Amino acid sequence: MPTSAKDTNLSTAAVIPAAGRGVRLGPGAPKALRTLGGIPILVHAVRAMTHARAVSLVVVVAPPDGVAEVSALLDSHGLPEAKDIKIVAGGETRQESVRLGLAALPDGIDVVLVHDAARPLVPVEMVEAVAAAVRDGAPAVVPGLPLADTVKEIDPATDAVVGTPERALLRAVQTPQGFDRATLVKAHATITSDVTDDAGMVEQLGIQVLVVPGHEEAFKVTRPLDLVLAEAVLARRRAADVF
Ligand code: CTP
Ligand code: MG
């Protein structure tokens, strides 16, 4: 059923792709299972989703050989009883993992948030804002931030600069990205080329994607320095007693 504008009775689920290995983070446990402030990155991400009032179900997409381990991990971290949590096995690429997560959604879910496990510190207000924009009628919503650096387009064969897009018109996009369920399912069924985010697939269908304000604490833990930053953000939150 298509999403109707301003429908406040829509049911929202979050799909959390967490099946990546985290190669850029260096050797060690899979990225989602590494800890920040003593708590696994995945648990931080799941909590951010369960704390959002709109979200009634969270589907965690685990490494294919890690479903039992992820299940035990989540059980041991006392998540809210009122929210349903499902764990499914992921795939070779993020895109495939998201598709497998979508396939596990029950009937009755109309709005889907797709959130990287690797963004453990996303503020719950941002999650609520993305969900609200979809519930207000936008088929696809991404949080985005202006860029600090100027971006160059290059010719990969020569490393020569071929262009400089106007920085003021660029946004670095984060997750959760929010979608009308039918729109996202259609995008995953139709688009087979490689993409790095879900909104990109919806764009390829010719459907408009809306940008809402992102948050600097929703950064993706990708490289070793990101772990240092994440620990610092957590320490600041704990000192301020906000989480
Ligand atoms: N992801 C996934 N399935 C994959 C690959 C990635 O579910 N086959 C998830 C990751 O677990 C992560 C999110 O997609 O939460 C964003 O991907 P990224 O930050 O690139 O994580 P990794 O792929 O794990 O890291 P790397 O690319 O450095 O290996
Ligand atoms: Mg990756």
Please supply descriptive tags for the structure shown above.
alpha/beta; Spore Coat Polysaccharide Biosynthesis Protein SpsA, Chain A; 21% strand; globular; disordered N terminus; binds cytidine-5'-triphosphate; binds magnesium ion
Describe this entry's structure for a reader.
The protein has 243 residues and is of the alpha/beta class. It has one domain: Alpha-Beta Complex (Spore Coat Polysaccharide Biosynthesis Protein SpsA, Chain A). The protein is built from 7 helices and 12 strands. Strands 1, 4, 5, 6, 7, 10, 11 and 12 form an 8-stranded mixed beta sheet that branches. Strands 2-3 form a two-stranded antiparallel ribbon. A two-stranded antiparallel sheet has the order 8-9. The radius of gyration is 18 Å and the shape is globular. The N and C termini lie far apart (37 Å). Residues 17-24, 31-32, 61, 90-94, 97, 116-118, 220, 222 line the site of cytidine-5'-triphosphate (CTP).
